[in-house]
UniProtKB/TrEMBL annotation:
Positions of transmembrane segments: 6-23, 35-56, 62-83, 104-126, 166-186, 229-251, 263-283, 323-347, 359-379, 419-439
Organism expressing this protein natively: Oceanobacillus oncorhynchi
Organism domain of life: Bacteria
Lineage, opening ranks: Bacteria, Bacillati, Bacillota, Bacilli, Bacillales
UniProt entry keywords in alphabetical sequence: Membrane, Transmembrane, Transmembrane helix
Gene Ontology biological process: L-glutamate transmembrane transport
Gene Ontology CC: membrane
Gene Ontology molecular functions: glutamate:sodium symporter activity
Protein name listed in UniProt: Sodium/glutamate symporter
Pfam families, A to Z: Glt_symporter
Length: 460
């Protein structure tokens, strides 16, 4: 591969992404489906690329881009660090505590049920199926295309070919289930009177439908934290992400060559980025005051859009055809999990604004954070349910569970420790239910139509 090959591949990707945005802005049926432009572009790339019609001059290397872009995405998560506010936690303990347990239970069940289903049921129909097959569901649904690429690469390094293609297919299916299924559930909830802030689905703003923000609704994507005379602010933030990404790759190669140990590169990059966040410091004397988290988020989101394109466009259709039956069964198991998490566990562990909070978790549990955010904005455009606020506070609690699943999961599932891995997340699931009952965070007996909204703060 040459630098010119890279240029042509990204040029083709950019053309199709812009075309996807144009289609989203102009075609009503696409607006009603809320399908992201990058996903539309991915489908176009799959149809026009080397896997099918072979019209576009895309190289055979497009399948390798997703794994590299993933490193940048996780570096962006690490460099933004974490936030925790004891004062808010004490004030709103019940609401946030229940929500934290709900989020943890959501990922635990999405890991446990598909893996057990794959081992006990799918393997009976397809005996040669890999025991790690079930983890691809959580990687694709909960993790999205970035995690699917990372997990697929790890599995392939352990000897399982085609894992990345299967993971990307799972992620694509999860995103469609998240968007289309989410809209169906929103229409259902508005008819039932379960929504607190939007009572009619037709109230959705034009900005959300077309994806084009009107001048009066536009917000800044970040601030100049360094002078362009010295260094462009965007270049400054890009450098902050490329450093841990590159160091993560080099360090992982060193570990592999020195100790013959295999770790996911994205995990190493995330840890390095998190250490940079801690070392840079957030105090008055810390360098971190010159880091704009909104710019970091935008870079990470931009990388995710290209990751989605290359992930979908590079899917090997023969592999999907070969695995169509186990993939279909796996998707169905995942669909059952996310629906139960939304309509059963959601109202059980969320009292105030239960549907708004549950649909957000449903959205990012079937694709990416942006899908959850899109669904939330449809019914709570001003975050009155405090879903995003609570997510920022309790979000770090999920990180260890995710990192262990994505890092240790493939190794344990490929080396005969599958039941040990499953047992860990079964124990976590049981602990969530026990904690919910002990702290009285189980509200199932209260009728759904009688649930209140989250109380507004005084200043609101």
């Amino acid at each position: 591969m040459t630098i010119n090959t890279l240029l042509v591949d990204f040029a083709c990707a950019s053309i199709l992404i812009l075309l996807g945005m144009f289609l989203r802005a102009k075609l009503k049926f696409i607006q009603r489906s809320f399908i992201p432009a990058s996903l539309l572009a991915g489908f176009l790339g799959l149809a026009l690329g080397p896997s099918f019609l072979n019209i576009l001059p895309l190289s055979e290397h497009i399948g390798s881009y997703a794994g590299v872009i993933t490193i940048l995405v996780f570096a962006a998560v690490g460099i933004n660090g974490f936030s925790f506010s004891p004062g808010n936690m004490k004030k709103d303990l019940n609401r946030m505590g229940a929500y934290a347990i709900y989020k943890i239970l959501g990922i635990a069940l999405q890991i446990v049920i598909p893996i057990v289903f794959a081992i006990i049921v799918i393997s009976k129909f397809i005996p040669e199926i890999n025991y790690g097959f079930g983890l691809l569901l959580a990687a694709g649904f909960y993790g999205g295309h970035g995690t699917a690429a990372a997990i697929g690469t790890t599995f392939e390094n352990l000897g399982w070919e085609n894992a990345t293609d299967l993971g990307m297919t799972a992620a694509t299916g999860g995103m469609l289930i998240g968007i289309l299924g989410g809209l169906i559930f929103i229409k259902w909830a508005t008819r039932k009177g379960y929504t607190q802030y939007v009572k009619d689905f037709s109230e959705i703003s034009e900005d959300l439908k077309t994806g084009l923000v009107k001048p009066e609704n536009r917000t800044s994507m970040g601030k100049d934290t360094v002078s362009p005379i010295a260094l462009d602010p965007l270049a400054f933030h890009v450098a902050l992400l490329v450093v841990p990404a590159g160091l993560g790759y080099l360090l992982n190669n060193y570990i592999a060559e020195t100790w013959n140990l295999e770790f996911p590169t994205f995990t190493i990059a995330f840890i390095i980025a998190l250490l940079m966040y801690l070392v840079l410091g957030r105090g008055k004397k810390g360098i971190y005051k010159y880091v704009d988290s909104k710019i970091v988020d935008r870079i990470g989101s931009s990388a995710t859009d290209y990751l989605v394109f290359f992930g979908v466009a590079s899917i090997q259709l023969p592999v999907v055809r070969e695995y169509w039956l186990p993939l279909t069964l796996l998707m169905l198991s995942g669909l059952v999990v996310v629906v139960l998490t939304l309509v059963v566990i959601g109202p059980g562990m969320n009292y105030e604004s239960w549907f708004e909070r549950s649909i957000f978790v449903y959205g990012y549990s079937t694709g990416v954070f942006a899908i959850g955010l899109t669904l939330l904005r449809v019914i709570d455009p001003n975050n009155k349910s405090k879903t995003l606020t609570d997510t920022a506070i309790v979000g770090p609690l999920n990180t260890p569970l995710e990192l262990f699943a994505w890092s240790a999961g493939p190794i344990m599932l490929m080396t005969g420790q599958h039941w040990t891995f499953v047992g860990i997340y079964v124990a976590i699931s049981i602990a969530c239910f026990v904690i919910a009952r002990i702290f009285k965070w189980w509200y199932w007996k209260i009728p759904l139509g009688e649930r209140p909204a989250v109380p507004l703060d005084r200043e609101e």
